[in-house]
Amino acid sequence: MAEHVVHSPLPGVFYRRPSPDADPYVEPGEQVTADQTIGLVEVMKQFAEVKAGADGTLVSFVVEAEQVLSPGEPVATIEVA
To answer: Which tens digits make up the pLDDT trace of 36-46?
Structure first.
């Protein structure tokens, strides 16, 4: 199976859920679609959605929640169907 690596579109802090009390957008092992949001990157109080970018199964997150990212840094791996 091929793998797709999701990269951070911006530098900032990565969040796996839309708010502290909400469930994560997706958990490893779940199916995702290309346009599905899997996380957020916050920079200067602005939030940008991180999309899966490919249909398949989310294998793992490469970064921890609330980790500071550089632009283009790998965020997650998706096994492409």
So the answer is: 999 999 999 99
- Cα distance between residue 73 and residue 21, in whole Å: 26
Q: Please give the Cα distance from 58 to 62 (Å, whole number).
A: 11
Place of tokens 């200067």: 44
Q: Which residue type is seen at 54?
A: A
CA–CA dist 30, 73 (Å, integer) = 22
What is the distance between the alpha carbons of residues 61 and 78, in angstroms, rounded to a whole number?
A: 9
pLDDT value at residue 75: 97
The DSSP output letter for 68 is E
